[in-house]
Amino acid sequence: MLMRPDGRLTRQGRLARTFLFVSLVVAGVVLGSQAVAVGDAGPEPTDTYSVSPGETLWEIATALRGPGEDTRDIIDEIISLNGLEGAGVRAGQQILIPVSS
User: Fold this and answer.
1) CATH number of the domain within which 61 lies
2) Which of 51, 52, 77, 97 is least crowded, fewest Cβ atoms below 10 Å from its Cβ?
3) What is the pLDDT of residue 49?
């Protein structure tokens, strides 16, 4: 019996309600993570690039820019790919750059 005659839940009723709630949360997390995985196109193709002396991230991004692309977007992408805190790079540094398809 899950309910008392006065309409309140018994201990078993409260446990069943808690179990149902936890089950729904777990199902939501599992299904949500699968939906994200399905929508993910996979890792972006990259190449490794060695920074030359005096070269800036702006120059590197400009060289990679395709028609209609914004250099600032490419810089943001390089910063994200490499986990950089800013746009500063140093000579000899190996960085990942996006490869256009």
Assistant:
1) 3.10.350
2) 52
3) 94
